[in-house]
Specification:
There is one protein chain. Among the domains are: about 230 residues, no CATH class; about 270 residues, no CATH class. The chain is globular, with a radius of gyration of 26 Å. It contains 26 helices and 22 strands. The strands form four sheets. Strands 1, 2, 3, 6, 7, 8, 9, 10, 11, 12 and 13 form an eleven-stranded antiparallel sheet that branches. It is of the alpha+beta class.
Length: about 725
């Protein structure tokens, strides 16, 4: 088939060759599932695949975006099941000193709300999003972009996207966004109900929810009860509202039913969730950059930041609590980066991708209308090549802004003040009126994430790395503020923080509400520094947008060529993940990662006892150990193993963002809660290797047992229509 025929295809018809896809591979858009109905049925699914295509109908409308990950409604009264680590910020937010001066350690002790009045509010910017619609609007988004290049192309797409979002958000309660599919080939408008009042209902102790911590992270066998229950609330009128004591539980359009059936090897499994980002359709040069530069540098940077924070908090227990969530996130990212690097090397990803791309280009060269496509691919490669010149600087400058609390707050306040001088439609994304409530929420929780001595150490570490860069990668504004040597940087950092008032919530909120001129005139040292740094931020954004615009224009040529080539092989191309709702399916599976080693698909409570040392991260709580010793597993006992299961292993296709994704059986009932991948599969965000790709889930029989026998919450079991035994 000639290339021109592929150029005319929509994303829906891109699935025509689905028959050749592996049953355990693919993060499918729900709209694609009717196209692969035969494969779903053959794998064991007992429902109607067409029902899965409708996001506003069960079961898809029970699957929600929670924070930056996934969750699912499990009761008619807005009860949300997600991971302990996804809700960890909420748990941390409610830990520490209470208003009456008491110490409250929900991380160490866990939490059970005795009733709804006892449920605790989440941090103000924590959200649950319920997807209501997913509509293709490619022609609208690209109408004014065609014929343009670079920044002009980017701006045309940006303006059209903001207009579509603004129109969508005229409906009260909507949070809307534009999803880019197949790297600029297709665009979809996503409509989501934004639930703002989220409360903590049940969290196991950290020694259960995070059993094994970083030692077991990405490893099998696992024995983690990585789950938490939240509840979404709305105003008395049933509409989304900020926290208020008299709000009422949200009544979701659907909720999932937890299964009470046994689970065994070979059983069908299906997962629905919001995977973050995958890069499987990137060009070969990008695979090489990821393996040869990005991942090694990320490992080094993240390891350094963790060491800096842990050293600064070693003798300060209160500060350690403040930074617990940030450190946990950094550790997870570090281990993921190292695992991804090891996995891509194990799969020989650079050579495999280069060979595959060479074959694609050879196929393309034989198509009668390939010249324009070949030219666009070459131009895209030149854009990627040029970006390498400042990548180290850009990475460090980004970390200076993202890994600090007060400096980031100052930059946000200065940027918001500058953006407020523009019409709302022309403001930068993230600084529009629709974003101000989230910004306010972030400002309100800074003091629960911040210690001045720790932040100063983090900034000093990043500046030390920055000063080691070649002169061509230095930033004039950074040098002007922090100097060119360690002594100057130390003095500058001390001067910025010693007299800044941004550590006070009232001052941050005052500046947030102030007129732009008053913000610009602030004499607070950190605000002054942020004002001086802002031009450098804007220059980097300009370069990023120009590059992004060119790649947005050019990448569709590569994608259409790839789709055509794959179809010639009898294969399909599903879109790379981009935080939109996706479905994967497969089976409860074993794995043989290396010679003489087999991973069985179920772990049991005996493994908790075997790993227990009495010291973190293998310090199983006494109530848990006593319950295991008692052996009273009730209705959750595995009939074949004769004991209580903990975690299960499948060959489902997942990546970051799939944390908290519900795992369903052939009848659509909940059997598991996704929380991790095995070490050998971390690289799946770039390359799917069926030999190694596995996903790790909490067996929900373990959750039921904990709620029934160990840290009892019979009222929650009743709410989920589950037996309290």
């Amino acid at each position: 088939m000639r290339l021109s025929m592929f150029v005319a295809m929509t994303s829906f018809t891109m699935t025509a060759a689905a028959g050749a896809a592996h049953a355990d591979e693919g993060m499918w858009m729900p709209s694609q599932l009717p196209e692969i109905a035969a494969q779903l049925k053959a794998a064991g699914f007992q429902g109607n695949p067409s029902d899965l295509a409708e996001l506003a109908r069960p079961p898809m409308n029970a699957v929600v975006k929670v924070g930056g990950a996934t969750g699912a409604f499990v009761s008619k009264d807005g009860l949300v099941l997600t991971n302990h680590h996804v809700a960890f910020g909420v748990i941390q937010y409610n830990s520490g000193k209470t208003a009456d001066g008491r110490d409250r350690d929900l991380i160490g002790n866990g939490f059970i709300a005795a009733d709804r009045n006892a449920e605790l509010p989440a941090n103000p910017d924590y959200r649950v999003l319920v997807t209501k619609g997913f509509d293709r609007i490619t022609d609208r988004i690209l109408a004014d972009a065609r014929g343009k290049t670079g920044r002009a192309y980017y701006d045309a797409v940006d303006v059209a996207s903001k207009a579509a979002v603004a129109e969508c958000e005229r409906e009260a309660g909507n949070r809307c966004s534009i999803a880019n599919m197949y790297y600029g080939t297709d665009f979809y408008l996503i409509r989501q109900l934004e639930l703002k009042d989220i409360r903590l209902v049940y969290a196991p102790p950290d020694a259960i929810g995070n059993y094994g911590d970083e030692i077991d992270n990405f490893m099998w066998p696992r024995h983690s009860g990585d789950f938490t229950l939240l509840r979404a609330y709305v105003g008395k009128d049933g509409k989304p509202a900020a926290y208020a004591a008299d709000n009422v539980p949200y009544q979701p359009p659907a909720h999932l039913q937890v299964s009470t059936d046994p689970v065994a090897e070979g059983d069908f499994a299906m997962l629905a969730g919001y995977p973050g980002t995958t890069f499987r359709h990137r060009m070969a040069s990008e695979f090489a950059d990821q393996i040869e530069w990005q991942l090694p540098s990320r490992v080094d940077l993240l390891g350094g930041l963790i060491k800096t924070i842990e050293s600064a908090t070693a003798t300060k227990p209160d500060a350690k609590v403040l930074y617990a969530s940030q450190v946990a996130s950094l550790k997870n990212s570090l281990k993921r980066a190292q695992g991804e690097l090891d996995g891509l090397r194990r799969s020989d990803a650079v050579n495999v991708r280069r060979a595959d791309e060479a074959a694609l280009l050879a196929w393309l060269g034989k198509q009668s209308d390939a010249a324009a496509t070949q030219a666009d691919i070459r131009t895209a490669q030149s854009v990627l090549d040029a970006a390498r010149g400042t990548r180290e600087r850009d990475q460090l400058f980004g970390l200076m802004r993202s890994q600090t609390q007060l400096l980031r707050s100052a930059l946000t306040l200065q940027r918001l003040a500058a953006e407020r001088g523009k019409p709302d439609a022309q403001r930068e994304s993230g600084y529009q009126q629709r974003d101000e409530a989230l910004i306010e929420g972030a400002m309100k929780q800074v003091q629960r994430r911040y210690d001045p001595a720790v932040e100063k150490n983090v900034l000093a570490d990043l500046l030390t790395r920055y000063r080691a860069l070649p002169a061509a990668q230095r930033i004039a504004e950074v040098d002007a503020i922090f100097g060119n040597d360690q002594a100057a940087a130390t003095r500058a950092i001390d001067a910025l923080y010693v007299s800044s008032k941004l550590g006070d919530e009232a001052e941050r909120l005052r500046l947030l509400a102030a007129l732009p001129a008053d913000v610009a005139a602030s004499s607070d040292p950190l605000m002054v520094a942020a004002a001086k740094l802002l031009p450098a931020v804007l220059r980097q954004e300009e370069a990023d947008k120009t590059r992004a615009g060119e790649l947005l224009r050019l990448r569709p040529a590569f994608m259409r060529a790839l789709i055509g080539y794959r179809k010639s092989q009898g294969r399909t191309v599903y879109p790379d993940a981009n935080s939109t709702l996706r479905v994967s399916y497969g089976k409860v599976s074993t794995m043989a990662p290396r010679d003489g080693v087999t991973y069985v698909p179920l772990t049991t409570v005996q493994g908790i006892v075997e790993k227990h040392t009495g010291k973190a991260p293998f310090d199983a709580p006494k109530p848990l150990r006593d319950a295991i010793a008692k052996g009273d597993f009730g209705s959750t006992v595995d009939p074949d193993l004769g004991t209580q299961t903990v975690n299960l292993l499948t060959n489902l296709d997942t990546t970051g963002g799939n944390s908290g994704s519900p795992v369903l059986d052939a009848k659509g009932k909940l059997i598991g809660l996704n929380f991790d991948s095995n070490w050998e599969a971390v690289s799946a965000s770039w390359m799917f290797d069926p030999r190694y790709k596995r996903a790790i889930h909490v067996d929900l029989r373990y959750m039921r047992w904990l709620l029934a026998k160990v840290y009892p919450a019979p009222h929650l079991l009743k709410e989920m229509q589950l037996p309290a035994e």
